[in-house]
Amino acid sequence: MSFPGLPEPAPGEALLVCTCYEDDKALWGGLLNETGGHREGGVLALGGGGVRLRLVEDRGWDHLHGGNVPALVPSGGLVPPVVVLADIPVVYGGDGPLLVDLAAIPGRGVRAPSARLGEILAALLGGTLAFDDLVRDVDKYGTYQGDGGRPAFPAPTAPPRRSFPALPSTAAALLVRTSFDDEDGWRALLDELGGADEDGWVGADLDPDEIDVENYPLEALVVDDRVFEDLLPAQVPALIPPEEHTTLVALADARTFAEPGRPLTVVDLYDTPGQTAVLPCSMVGSMACNLEIGNMDFHEFVAEDGMDPWWEG
User: Fold this and answer.
1) Is the N or C terminus of the chain more exposed, i.e. has fewer CB atoms within 10 Å?
2) pLDDT tens, 192-242?
3) Model confidence over 22-62: pLDDT tens digits?
4) What residue ranges in the chain does DSSP mark as E strands?
5) Parallel, antiparallel, or unpaired: how do β-strands 82-86 and 98-101 relate?
6) What does the alpha-carbon distance between residue 65 and residue 62 come to, in Å, rounded to a whole number?
């Protein structure tokens, strides 16, 4: 799947892109009313800071995800620090719009309460609030200053050390090694996941009759390449090619080789790009299976600070 490039906003504007359509009609849900703004032609003017959002509608952006956005921004022109998406969670779930970072770590996202969108964007565009501030203050649903409980394992906000190439395109999951200091630990992790076959997959050749449905095995394409050393979760969404709907990306990072259960850092690619869930490696297969069939949402796997995670219940 390819997407058309996004238009360049006028000075003082940001883009509000509709990514959900039915019969070629843009679906905004209740967002345009919930922001408290008013329309002036193709612009939504928000109070509390004078923010103006250019409404961007085109069926070509149907199912556009936050991680896809950085590649669609015109180069050499006026690049806003943030693009706002009205996506499926907004239209059908009543969630707040997705704010996509284009400045610090392009492609990561945070949801904002709709009624506070003008206030938050004014602070971002005015430089009194950084995207890192949003990320540090999300709840387990990925909403800035939401009331859903704080994640037990917050997504890191350290500045990226470098850029990375695109990850492989697959409709399944990816297991990406980002720490290369413990070769024995890496081999032990692969063994625990059933071993990698000659094509670089774990879990691809399991007998369905032998699968423990309570601890569903992870089927994933293994990426063991030092070029991805020190890859941050927040950088992952922008590296996912749009051709396939990758289920999830699990990072084998320093925590994997230092803590019991060989925990993997799983990255949300869709609802709140860059949000993380840290799970024992034996649980990630169940997560991938439930996400793939739409039985559970990403936030249901995010361990909440001060509470036992679901897999210990």
Assistant:
1) C
2) 999 999 999 998 876 666 666 667 889 999 999 999 999 999 999 999 999
3) 999 999 999 999 999 999 999 999 976 789 999 999 999 99
4) 13-18, 21-22, 25-26, 38-40, 43-45, 52-56, 82-86, 98-101, 109-111, 173-177, 201-202, 220-223, 249-252, 263-267, 276-280
5) antiparallel
6) 9
Token pair for residue 249? 């990306």
pLDDT at 75: 78
Cα-Cα-Cα-Cα dihedral of 145, 146, 151, 155, to 10°?
Answer: -50
pTM of the predicted model over 0.90: yes
Decide: 229 and 178 in contact? Cβ < 8 Å. Answer: yes
The C-alpha atoms of residue 44 and residue 221 are separated, in whole angstroms, by 43
Rounded to an integer, what distance in angstroms lies between the CA atom of residue 150 and that of residue 218? 27
Q: Does the pLDDT at position 168 exceed 90? A: yes
Using CB atoms within 10 Å of the CB of residue 310, give its burial: 0 to 12 exposed, 13 to 18 middle, 19+ buried.
Answer: middle
